[in-house]
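Action item from last meeting closed. Structure (231 res):
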């Protein structure tokens, strides 16, 4: 067991063969047949099934971390690492029309919207090949003007998850790793041209779990005053 006080930055140094010490430790553990189910990608400590995730700004890479590494590195090194929130929250119905949806160029009825550094905003939607990404900065600006509550979504680590598959659209602020997990479910269970029966079942199960873990929304989302500016 690696001491909790250990400095994770020590494990980012290169070890044998140019690998980080954490990666080398993981490979060595695999060779001895005793690799745990999950290890911290920064210090190689064994991880429980429930553990923090960090977003690495280089390449928007999601990494598994132990709690000490997550606490120590969150927001450090000029925000090189950012801790991904654990909880999702439901939003009241938003005024996102079919025209708004088409303006964002999203061809399916399931997507998540994430703002990134530099002011760019992207919509991502599941596909048999994984999450497809398209920039929607212009179209999204108009939606933000009408729904100032959306400006509180944390850039890069949270997304607006939109489910328009059923009769009434649903809106959630969700951690970015859960959104990518949804895209991964679609890719994993997609069969043939139509997707097969398992994809809708997996999507229904995902949203059932999401609803069970969030508080219901209260009241309508107020519209922004005319001419309001959203940062």
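Sequence:
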């Amino acid at each position: 067991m690696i001491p909790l006080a250990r400095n994770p930055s020590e494990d980012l140094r290169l070890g044998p063969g140019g690998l980080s010490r954490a990666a080398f430790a993981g490979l060595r553990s695999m060779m001895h047949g005793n690799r745990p189910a999950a290890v911290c990608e920064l210090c190689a400590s064994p991880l429980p099934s429930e553990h923090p995730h960090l977003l690495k700004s280089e390449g928007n890479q999601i990494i598994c971390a132990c709690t000490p590494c997550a606490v120590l590195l969150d927001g450090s090194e000029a925000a090189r690492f950012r801790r991904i929130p654990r909880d999702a929250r439901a939003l009241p119905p938003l005024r996102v029309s079919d025209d708004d949806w088409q303006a964002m160029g999203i061809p399916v009825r399931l997507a998540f919207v994430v703002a990134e550094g530099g002011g760019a905003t992207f919509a991502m939607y599941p596909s048999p090949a994984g999450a497809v990404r398209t920039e929607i900065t212009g179209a999204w600006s108009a939606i933000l003007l009408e729904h100032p509550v959306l400006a509180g979504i944390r850039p890069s680590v949270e997304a607006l998850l939109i489910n328009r598959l059923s009769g009434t659209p649903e809106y959630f602020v969700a951690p970015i790793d859960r959104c990518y997990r949804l895209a991964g479910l679609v890719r994993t269970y997609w069969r043939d041209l139509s997707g097969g029966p398992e994809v809708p079942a997996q999507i229904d199960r995902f949203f059932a779990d999401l609803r069970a873990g969030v508080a219901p929304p209260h009241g309508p989302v107020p519209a922004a005053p005319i001419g309001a500016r959203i940062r």
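Note appended to the action item: Helices lie at 21-31, 67-73, 76-79, 98-103, 137-146, 176-189, 198-212.
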